[in-house]
Amino acid sequence: MKLVDALKAKYPGSQAWQIGDDTDMANELADLVIKGIKTASCGALTSYLAEESAPRIGSHNIILNGRDEPVCVIRMTSMSLVRFSDVTEEFARKEGEGDMSLEYWRTEHKAFFTRAGLYADDMELVAEEFEVVEVCNQTAHA
Predict the structure, then answer these.
(1) DSSP states along 14-52
(2) 137: pLDDT confidence band, cut at 50, 70 and 90?
(3) How many CB atoms lie within 10 A of CB 30?
C-alpha cells in the first residue's frame, strides 16, 4: 500500500496536496511545515468555492513535497476570510516564509496570485491555521 493511501485510510476524508505552484516551492514550504515554522497558509476564496473537497476546520490534510510524496499530516485549526490588503503582520509571520515580514508576504503572494490570474488588492482570501499531527518518515517508505 502506498503511503498516501495508508494516510488517507488513517485520516478518513483527508486530501493530499502540495503548497505552492512549483516543485521547488512545494519542497521549501513542506519543509517549513515539518519544522513548525509555517503554521498558516491562504488561498483565494474563488478557488475554495470551486473545490468540492476544500479543507474545513478540523479536517486533516496530507502535505506533499515536490515529488508528490507525503511529508506530514496537518489538522486545520482555524479558518477565516480576509482581504489581501487586510492581511496582518501576525498572519505573515505564521506563514513562515522569507523574513516573515508583511512586506515579504505581500510581494510574494501578489506574485503568486498574479501568476494564477487571481490577484486584486481587495481579493478575499481564506486564511488557514494548522498544526502538524504526524510527520512521515520518508526513508521508511522509499
Answers:
(1) -EEE-SSSSHHHHHHHHHHHHTTS--EEEEEHHHHHH-T
(2) confident
(3) 22
Burial class of residue 58 (count of CB atoms within 10 Å of its CB; 0-12, 13-18, 19+): exposed
Question: Rounded to whole angstroms, how far apart are CA atoms 42 and 19?
Answer: 10
Give residue 141's identity as a one-letter amino acid code. Answer: H
Looking at the DSSP bridge assignments, the partners of residue 42 are 127
Q: Identify the band that residue 18 occupies on the pLDDT scale cut at 50, 70 and 90.
A: very high
50-86 pLDDT, tens digit per residue, is 887 778 899 999 999 999 999 999 999 999 999 999 9
Q: Residues with Cβ < 8 Å from 42, sequence gap 6 or more?
A: 82, 87, 91, 95, 109, 125, 126, 127, 128
Residues sharing a CB contact under 8 Å with residue 119, sequence separation 6 or more, in sequence order: 84, 110, 113
What's domain 3-133's superfamily in CATH? Sulfate adenylyltransferase (3.10.400.10)
Question: Domain extents for the chain?
Answer: 3-133
Better pLDDT: 10 or 51: 10
